[in-house]
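Deliverable D5.2: sample structural annotation.
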Amino acid sequence: MKSTPYHEAVPGHHFQLTNQQESQELPRYRKLGVFGFNAAYIEGWALCAERLTTENGWYESDLPGRLGCLQLQLFRARRLVADTGLHAKKWTRQQVIDYGFTPQETECYIVWPGQACSYMIGQLRILELREQAKAALGAKFSIKEFHTLVLRGGPMPLAVLAQEVDACVAARKAGGWSRGPTYMMISKRIQTAKDFCLNRQLRNGLRSAPLTSRQFQATVSSAFRSADFGSVSAAMRWSRVTSTPPRRIARPRR
């Protein structure tokens, strides 16, 4: 089934992850994905990649491949029903199995609420942003530039991605196409705050207690308050610095 390698490899997950890890713009902690798995962005892009193959005629002379693509779309539609049924409609485990899923699949949906829905939510939002950019730019719109914009920032919440697209569309209208200001400023300020905390700890000779999460949070908050852009609180929620900061910086061995 060709849709599977398109989803998992190129132009899907492997292509997206390669862009993220080999980026010369992202700070190291972003390239390594230390803030966890953003299913809406990652899986949304992979579904968009599958759609691109259809839009570009990769199945024109391949009926089995086209049928396989449609089968996967039907499977993901059924997953939306199962995920929503379990976590919003009080379905039982047996109801999901009776709907056509294996016990193993059912248990995955039980312990990971919303994960199955995130695929389609991500895809629909990225496609919506694409259509908005196309409508705003008209003849200036480039599908290649749009995909570059989506991939260059690595995984991010869809709200932040929308801010990036809006900023870059405005820049394109003005005659250029550059990254929106929000993302890179956020990344650099978080990295600067982490470096400051570590350097301060080392300057103290590590005689005091290791840096606590509260100290780390206060330092990052101070760095963000000095920023000259409006979406500070949203940016901090996105980065998860305030909700799950490192609890302490480990002492190096002497």
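Annotation notes: The chain has two domains: 3-178, 182-239. The two ends are 55 Å apart (CA to CA).
The annotation will be released with the project's public dataset once the embargo ends.
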